[in-house]
Design brief:
The protein has one domain: NAD(P)-binding Rossmann-like Domain (Rossmann fold). 37% of the residues lie in helices and 14% in strands. The chain has 7 helices and 8 strands. The protein starts with a strand and ends with a helix.
Length: 241
C-alpha cells in the first residue's frame, strides 16, 4: 500500500487517478481548490485526507505544502493539476509543482503531467516568461515543467522522477472532441506511482506515454536549459530545490 498525493483531483484525470488508486487500496491525499469542486463527493470519505487551496496563489501553495506535511512522508506525489489557457498558466503549470517540490518533504517518487504539446514550447526568454514579463503558451509551460522534472531526476538520487504525456483525452480540459483513451490517460501515472521499481525502465527521468517511454523535447534533457528554468523559478518564488 502506497501513500500518494494527487493534485488537481476535483475532476478530470486527477479525479480518475484518485478514484482508481483508492479502489486499489492505496492511501490517497486528494488536493482540490475547494471541497465543493470535487465531483465525486463520496470519495472524500474514502481518501486518507484532503488539502485545499488555489495553486495559482503562491501563498496558498505554501499553505498546501504545510497541510500536506501532516500526511508525509509520501511514497509518491502526482502533480496532475493544470490549466490550458488564461492568466494562471505559469502559476499553475510550472510554479505550483516547483514550489510544492521545494517546500515539501521529498517523496520517494514524483510524477508530473506533461503534454505532447511541450515539443512546441519556447526555449528562449524563459526568465521573462516565468517572471510574468512576456506572454507564454501552454506549450511553453509544459516544456518548462518537463525540464524541471528532468533536472530533479538528475539531482535527487533518492527520488524517482518521471513525466507523463496522458494524451488528448475527453476531459473538461481536453474537450469532447478529444480522440485519446480516457482510461489510458490516467493509467501511466498510477503505474509509475505504485509499481515495483525493478519494473520501470528507465528507473528515473523517463518521459512516458501510455506506459511506453518516449523521447521528449531535446531541451528538456539539456542540463543547461534545466538550470535556466530552475534558476528562473528560484528567482520568482524565493524557493530553492
Amino acid at each position: 500500500m502506497a501513500r500518494i498525493l494527487v493534485t488537481g483531483a476535483s475532476t478530470g484525470l486527477g479525479l480518475l487517478t484518485a478514484q482508481s488508486l483508492v479502489r486499489q487500496g492505496h492511501d490517497v491525499v486528494l488536493h482540490a481548490r475547494a471541497a465543493e469542486r470535487v465531483e465525486d463527493a463520496p470519495l472524500l470519505r474514502r481518501v486518507l485526507g484532503t488539502v485545499y487551496g488555489d495553486l495559482a496563489d503562491l501563498d496558498a501553495v505554501r499553505r498546501i505544502a504545510e497541510e500536506a506535511h501532516r500526511f508525509a512522508p509520501f511514497d509518491a506525489v502526482i502533480h496532475n493539476a493544470g490549466v490550458s489557457d488564461g492568466p494562471d498558466l505559469v502559476a499553475v503549470n510550472v510554479i505550483a509543482p516547483y514550489a510544492l517540490t521545494g517546500l515539501m518533504e521529498r517523496p520517494s517518487r514524483m510524477i508530473v503531467l506533461s503534454s505532447s504539446m511541450h515539443r512546441g514550447g519556447a526555449t528562449n526568454h524563459v526568465a521573462e516568461g516565468i517572471a510574468g514579463r512576456r506572454t507564454v503558451t501552454y506549450s511553453d509551460t509544459k516544456l518548462w515543467a518537463t525540464a524541471v522534472l528532468m533536472g530533479i531526476a538528475g539531482r535527487w538520487s533518492g527520488t524517482l522522477a518521471h513525466a507523463v504525456d496522458p494524451g488528448w483525452v475527453p476531459t473538461r480540459m481536453g474537450g469532447p472532441s478529444a480522440s485519446d483513451d480516457l482510461t489510458e490517460g490516467h493509467r501511466t501515472q498510477e503505474w509509475l506511482a505504485v509499481t515495483p521499481v525493478d519494473g520501470i525502465h528507465p528507473r528515473t527521468g523517463g518521459y512516458w506515454h501510455h506506459r511506453q517511454p518516449r523521447r521528449p523535447h531535446p531541451a528538456a534533457l539539456d542540463a543547461r536549459f534545466q538550470d535556466e528554468v530552475i534558476a528562473a523559478l528560484e528567482e520568482r518564488t524565493g524557493i530553492e530545490l
